[in-house]
Amino acid sequence: MSARGTSAPVVGGIWAQSPDGVIGVDGGIPWHLPEDLKFFARTTIGHPVVMGRRTWESFPERFRPLPGRANIVITSRPESIPADGERVWAVDSYDAALRLAVKLAAHPGHVTGADNDGGSVVPAPTEPVREVWVIGGPGVWREAAEHAELPLTRVLVTTVDLDVAGDTRAPALDGTWTRHEVRDWERSAKGTRFRIDEYVR
Ligand SMILES: NC(=O)c1ccc[n+]([C@@H]2O[C@H](COP(=O)([O-])OP(=O)(O)OC[C@H]3O[C@@H](n4cnc5c(N)ncnc54)[C@H](OP(=O)(O)O)[C@@H]3O)[C@@H](O)[C@H]2O)c1
């Protein structure tokens, strides 16, 4: 995987949607697909994950913070999140989240606090290529896609073949993105059809 020819981390997005773009309902996800949860875990474990406060709250308390990942939560009220500076951080902007994620990705285990120094997002070029995953919701993915310095360049989309009603939708991916199949249509153990595609730009 390349990162614009530098050692800046690759910033990826990952979500699961219905064929017409539904990703959420009533603060949760309108299906339970263990195969996709495994894919999500395999993809993101070992890397910082960035999320909005409602996505953080969508995880049952016993499943958060997501294990094996630095959990970075964006909220206008960071004091409302039980941040410990080890597994959970709370910051008040996407930019602060990305700066922190870049630092954590480059020095896993070495950063204990939020990076509020206002410095550049792109790390020194001698650091190894790393990954940062933006895990939702839609406003956070949009901000990530539009980030001037280190935008999203990769999105993994699981399409779950269910006709569900919802109140939250995935952002549209325009013609600047190229799709590659990761897994063609298959059936989960419980019979739900799903596929996984990667979009890059
Ligand atoms: N299917 C999937 O793959 C998937 C993935 C993720 C989420 N979801 C679903 O999507 C829904 C949650 O998405 P959502 O769009 O409602 O919420 P969200 O993006 O997770 O969280 C929104 C909140 O994040 C904070 N926030 C976001 N950007 C900010 C910024 N730039 N500055 C300060 N604070 C910022 C604000 O928190 P405060 O209000 O605290 O200020 C805002 O209210 C749930 O239903 C969840 O299950 C589905």
What is the overall pLDDT average? Answer: 90
Shape: globular
CATH topology, what is it called? Answer: Dihydrofolate Reductase, subunit A
What's the main sheet like? 8 strands, mixed
Order of helices and strands: EEHEHEEHEHEEEE
- Output the CATH class name: Alpha Beta
Which small molecules are bound? NADP nicotinamide-adenine-dinucleotide phosphate
- What is the name of the CATH superfamily? Dihydrofolate Reductase, subunit A
Number of domains: 1
Terminal CA distance reads: 13 Å
The CATH architecture comes to 3-Layer(aba) Sandwich
Question: Unreliable stretches, pLDDT < 50, 5 or more residues?
Answer: 1-6, 112-118
Rg over alpha carbons: 16 Å
The level of helicity is 10-25%
| Count of helix runs | 4
Give the amount of beta strand, in percent.
25-35%
Structural class: alpha/beta
Find the count of extended strands (DSSP E, 2+ residues): 10
Structural description of this entry:
Its EC number is 1.5.1.3. Belongs to the dihydrofolate reductase family. The chain has 201 residues and is α/β, with parallel strands linked by helices. It has one domain (16-200): Dihydrofolate Reductase, subunit A (3-Layer(aba) Sandwich), CATH 3.40.430. Helix content is 19%, strand content 27%. It is built from four helices and ten strands. It has helices spanning 34-44, 53-58, 94-106, 138-146, and strands spanning 10-17, 22-24, 49-52, 71-74, 88-91, 131-134, 154-160, 168-169, 178-187, 193-200. The strands form two sheets. It has an eight-stranded mixed beta sheet with strand order 5-4-3-6-1-7-10-9, sandwiched between helices. It has a two-stranded antiparallel sheet with strand order 2-8. Strand 9 (178-187) and strand 10 form a beta hairpin. The longest helix is centred in the middle third of the chain and has 13 residues, at 94-106. It is globular, with a radius of gyration of 16 Å. Mean pLDDT is 90; it is low at 1-6 and 112-118. NADP nicotinamide-adenine-dinucleotide phosphate binds next to strand 1, strand 2, strand 3, helix 2 and helix 4.
